[in-house]
Amino acid sequence: MLRDITLGQYYQTDSVIHRLDPRVKLVTTFFYIISLFIVDNWIGYLAAGLFLLAVIKLSKVPFKFMVRGMKSIVFLLLIAVVFNLFLTPGEPLVTIWKLRITKEGIRLAGFMAVRLVFLIMGSSVMTLTTTPNNLTDALEKLLKPLKFFKVPVHEIAMMMSIALRFIPILLEETDKIMKAQIARGADFESGNLIKKAKSLVPLLVPLFISAFRRANDLAMAMEARCYRGGEQRTKMKPLIYRKRDFLAYGTVVCYFAAAILAGKILW
Length: 267
What we know:
Elements: H1 16-19, H2 22-38, H3 42-59, H4 63-68, H5 74-87, E1 92-96, E2 99-102, H6 103-128, H7 132-142, H8 153-183, H9 193-199, H10 201-224, H11 243-266
Antiparallel strand pairs: 1-2
């Protein structure tokens, strides 16, 4: 299950999406997430789904690989759907004891499920097609105006990039610790939900120790290489906008307008 999480991983291949400027992918993902929260009808979500499918196709990332990453949020998805299904007031359709399933609840639960799936898959496309170094450079470029307010832009971008990169590493470490404890007789499968949650507590101590050790090793490696962030630091591969990047910006603007206007007008 832990190995199925694709967020933070990089999928090596040659595609149009991989060759785009990382700033384009960050801005595109940002606007795509905004569109998911603005749209409030099935036509708008259909447009969002078609746009996402087109991007996945262009990225050459296997669709099965993307779907596999959804296994990690099934529990969160079920909680969101159940809460919206039973706790949304409106016109009752089915009554189960003191719980009522309403027409508005079904609609809201469906929208929430689609929104979460599209949000995770859209974010995963960005991380799967962008290396951590490019992601750091893109964040630093986009946040550059904040330097006027004495905000340490480079350090913030570096921390966000490292945190994102460490997601698959920590998940792999958790998987190794779980297998080691299972080999020693630990049981993570039997019992109810509360018992399963308690059985995961022994994982936290070795996991935190491993995380702090990796963080210390990374800090020592950066110091040994005389790493210094700031104004004096140059880029080996500076980010330059190309024709395909402007075309991508235009496509995103067209999608954003179409998803909102088509949903409002046709609905």
